[in-house]
Amino acid sequence: MDPNLTQIRSFVAIGKLGSFTRAARAVHLSQPALTVQIRQLESALNVKILDRNTRSVRLTRVGEELLPVFERLLNEFDTVVTGAKDLATRRLGVVRLACLPSFAAAALPKAIVAFRARYPGIQFMLKDGVGRKIVSLVKSEAVDFGIAGGEVNDPDVRTEALTRDHMRAIYLSPHALDKEKKITAEILARQPLILMDEDSTVRQVIDLAFEKLGLSVRPALEATYMSTAVGMARAKLGVAVVPSTAIEAQTSGRLKSRLIEGRDFGRSIVIVRKTGRSLPPASESFIATLAASFSNRLRNGP
């Protein structure tokens, strides 16, 4: 039989208090029950750890050596249990996520601020990247979950719809597009376009939307970063196409941001989880907070 925590706590209480009566009170046992715990511990260890007579109780030499060891063991155990309870109640924890750069720069910071106002002990570890990198990070468990754009087809992960964003045309006014009441694919195709590179889900959405309409579009310029694309549009090198969730889509002054008509010029924003894996409580709560936030926006408007 191996020693158990009750036996160890009983022994440590006697060693620290020097009395069976006070120790029994401290560990909430009767004196006979406490005596049984010590006998069972000595049997498990196969060594005498207490010398007791009708007037006093003293630790044996082995007991004196074991007392600080058992005290340290109990302290470490209690620390672990307290930490686990803090994680479960969201008092402490780390949310690890991978996220689209456009979403990470615009919508995510507000969500983190709101969440940490409620759970100030929660920390965040963020990795930003495009679709394939996000899925890879989730599958390898480098992150708890991801926020990706577009369709994700991988049997090792599952997705949950979070929201939807739409593509916007960014250009510097005055411009020929100023005269158009709506920005359609046909109108856009006649413009020199500044598109994201081919690894981007934004680019994949745009290419597929034009293809469905039978339009062949070759970008005038390609950019890896949305800020670069918008900078080129500001220099009147063409019309940049970025998603509405991107901070770069929030323009002012002569730089215009206009919605591109057509459902195909949009993409789903999804939560990506690894199939068959449970998330830490803090991550589950943050996902629920995100879902509630975007649900409210859909009902009440932006």
Overview of the molecule:
- The chain is of the alpha/beta class and 302 residues long.
- It has two domains: 5-88, Orthogonal Bundle (Arc Repressor Mutant, subunit A), CATH 1.10.10; 96-302, D-Maltodextrin-Binding Protein, domain 2 (3-Layer(aba) Sandwich), CATH 3.40.190.
- 45% of the residues lie in helices and 22% in strands.
- It is built from eleven helices and eleven strands.
- The chain has helices at 5-17, 20-26, 31-45, 61-88, 101-105, 107-118, 131-139, 185-189, 201-212, 226-234, 281-300, and strands spanning 50-52, 57-59, 93-99, 122-128, 145-149, 157-172, 193-196, 221-223, 239-243, 255-259, 266-274.
- The strands form two sheets. Strands 3, 4, 5, 6, 7, 8, 9, 10 and 11 form a nine-stranded mixed sheet that branches. A two-stranded antiparallel sheet has the order 1-2.
- α1 crosses α2, α1 (5-17) packs across α3 and α2 (20-26) packs across α3 (31-45).
- The protein is rod-shaped and about 105 Å long.
Shape summary: rod-shaped
Strand segment tally = 11
Q: What can be said about the biggest beta sheet? A: 9 strands, mixed
Radius of gyration: 31 Å
How many domains make up the coordinates? 2
Helix content: 40-55%
Structural class: alpha/beta
CATH class of the largest domain, named Alpha Beta
Portion in strands: 15-25%
CATH topology value of the largest domain: D-Maltodextrin-Binding Protein, domain 2
CATH A-level architecture of the largest domain: 3-Layer(aba) Sandwich
* Low-pLDDT ranges: 298-302
Q: What distance separates the N and C termini?
A: 64 Å
Count of individual helical segments: 11
Spell out the helices and strands N to C: HHHEEHEHHEHEEHEHEHEEEH
Question: Quick check: average pLDDT?
Answer: 86
